[in-house]
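User: My instructor asked us to take a sequence, write out its structure as tokens, and then describe one feature of it. I'm not sure where to start. Here is the sequence I was given:
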Amino acid sequence: MKKRILFIATGGTIASEVTELGLKPGISAEGLLRAVPAIRELCDVECLQLYSLDSTDIGPEHWLGMARAIRENYEGFDGFVLSHGTDTMAYSAAALSYLIQGSAKPIILTGAQKPIGFDTTDSRVNLLDSFICACSGDMHGVMIVFNGRVILGTRARKTHSKSFDAFSSINYPHIADVRDGRVTQYIVPGFEKKPRFFSELD
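Assistant: Let's start with the prediction itself. The structure tokens for your sequence are:
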């Protein structure tokens, strides 16, 4: 059976369109998936358009909203993929790592340096790699998938503003690589049968 994955969209460059005022998030979660048809062949996906924000506008209230969305849907899905802007993705990943501890299911954040509508975009590869990881069966907890690397949510930092190789794993090796549709995993994060959700919602 195909894995059931919830795709949670929050905006960011990946979902942006060119406007008179510059790039602005405007492409929906469904629109992102239509640009990568292979995802629906890989798994059963449901979409949740949680926000449509530039990532510089994302903060604690939105981290709680993401955690709430995952908690409310946790039992119904095998994994979660969140599209997010790159400027604050590492902050959101760290926050979710503490708000949702010990998850046996993958909670993957990804984004792009260029919008999905651009010819030279990294969006499609990053999205597909994220869903491949979410369906692999061996991924647990919060992580960032970007440019073929899988990084723990508490270790990621954006170190390049223009390169597609935007994120590094700080003081810890990245836990897996994704190449040609295959996941090569080096480290298996710890997990529990039942995750612990920590937030003002408890």
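For the description part of your assignment, you could build on this observation: The chain has a mean pLDDT of 94. Try explaining in your own words what that tells you about the chain.
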